[in-house]
Amino acid sequence: MTNVSCGCHFRVMRCIVAPLAMRILVTEDEPRILSFLSRGLEAEGFAVDSAGDGAEALRCAERARYDLVVLDLLLPRIHGLAVLSELRRRCPDLPVVILSARTDLPTKLRGFELGANDYLPKPFSLDELIARIRVQLRRQAPPGDGNVIEVGRLRLDLARRQALLGDRTADLSDREFRLLHHLVLHAGEVMSRERLLSEIWGYHFDPGSNVVDVCIRRLRKKLGSEAVETVRHAGYRVAAA
Fold this sequence. Notes:
The protein is of the alpha/beta class. 38% of the residues lie in helices and 21% in strands. The strands form 3 sheets. Strands 1-2-8-9-10-11 form a 6-stranded antiparallel sheet, covered by helices on one side. Helix 4 (105-113) links the parallel strand 6 (96-100) and strand 7 (118-121). The protein is elongated, with a radius of gyration of 20 Å. It starts with a strand and ends with a strand.
């Protein structure tokens, strides 16, 4: 595969930049659970749309392209299994994770027969749900090198959301990926915490927020301390070479 030069700081293989946020549709008729799921997934950096019933879920799927659907079964208007069947007809490759209080084996088997990729019973752990979502999103990544940005020894695989540095390969959470992607695209440039918060997450800067620092610590734990450089009293950067 031919590498195409895209400036002095980094190279992009195939020169296709993936969207920063994976888009997820959450369908759940219980407002409290729907709010909890939406806030939890957004905190991990996902873009989240929500639907309170089956008909609304199908309308959302008509209007927008999603990377994954989290689907309850006991939905008003159109049952979740009927929604799943219609989603499979329209979008055969769209990953669907069922999240339901129905735990009987016949319902689970019916869900898988209709094309569900995973089935998580309620009550559930949000951390487990996020882990299962990431597994499905990685499985959707195309084979091969995908879309890879290289900065010095650091390689960032946009399709698989993996970072490689030396002999370390790390799967990144959505939040970690977005932060490292932004730093890589601005390789050699010092990025302040305020700027990172604003440009990546659109937050109004909160002096008490530590989201950037937490992500940096996690990236260094996965890839080594040299992955991201701290510039004292200024911010962070990824070395250009």
